[in-house]
Amino acid sequence: MGVGHGHGHGGDGGHAGGRHRWRLGVSFGLVAAFFVVELVVGLVSGSLALISDAGHMAADVVTLGAALVATKIATRADSTGRRTYGSYRAEVFASGLAVLMMLGVAVYVVVEAIGRIGEGGSGPDVATGPMLLVGFLGLVVNLVAMALLRGGSQESLNVKGAYAEVVADTAGSVGVMVAGGLVLATGDAVWDTVVAFLIGAFVAVRAVMLGREVLAVLGQHVPAGVDIDTVAGALGGIDGVCDVHDLHAWTLTSGMHVATAHLVLVEGADGTGVLRQGQLLLREQFQIEHATLQIEGHRSAACDAVTW
């Protein structure tokens, strides 16, 4: 017996990523335009730090583009009848792509940096003027993108993935400026390689942190901040409930938590009232708005027969 609210899926109203799609669009335009500038200057100047940051910005472009596509797909109504939860999980897959892109950039930069150090050195001569200028411009672009995405990063895993990319790239822009300053001050281009290595390591750490969140959603873990034993205790405390079993809770996508449970009632209990209380409890105490609660007069033998 479903807890009583509409089950239609589609539209921006309930989807956090869809509400912030315009932020992704503006950020995508800014980052894509600057990526071309940074890559060209990086190749001309010979700066590994600048090239590494351009590579990370390329990952930003792909990630933001995928995020835009994912939010469009996620808010599209299902016309096949096969996707009973809609296409909301598209944003989770886009976030997974962001993780892979970040790790790919990090590995490339670290391997290249280690190769230069292993060759004894500093690599080619580095033009510090372009490094400093492009690093500063990149910092400005990333700060604008951060300001745009910050508002949605707490609501949507998709926007959070894009935000994490931009944060990491902001650190990369700062690193480019630091590297340029050190090379200019010391005359030793090894600082360009060292900073590039640090940028790569930082990006890898950010990717792993986001990847853990993505895997938790895809693995249907209990939503972050929710203790399943506490949920069971709260449902069991509803007047008329004597047992709670087959309780499951997971995250469909950002801000959309789902739960199912079987509630065994004492004799004479008001089943309709229990359903309403269960709905209210899960929504208000645990932010689980979509729940399917099954009412039983006694523990069903069919439940005990389930082997998984």
TrEMBL record:
Domain Cation efflux protein transmembrane, first and last residues per copy:
26-218
Any one Pfam family match given in the protein's UniProt record, by short name: Cation_efflux
Q: Which residues form the Cation efflux protein cytoplasmic domain?
A: 224-296
The protein's matches in NCBIfam families, at most eight in alphabetical order, are given as: CDF (TIGR01297)
* Subcellular localization: Membrane
The answer to keyword Ribosomal protein applying to this record is: no
Membrane-crossing segments per the record: 24-48, 92-111, 131-149, 161-183, 189-209
Q: Which GO terms describe its cellular component?
A: plasma membrane
Family recorded in the similarity comment: Belongs to the cation diffusion facilitator (CDF) transporter (TC 2.A.4) family. SLC30A subfamily.
**Keywords for this protein:** Ion transport, Membrane, Transmembrane, Transmembrane helix, Transport
What are the recorded GO MF terms, alphabetically?
A: zinc ion transmembrane transporter activity
Q: Name the chain's protein.
A: Cobalt-zinc-cadmium efflux system protein
Q: How does it sit in the membrane?
A: Multi-pass membrane protein
**Organism encoding this protein:** Nocardioides kongjuensis
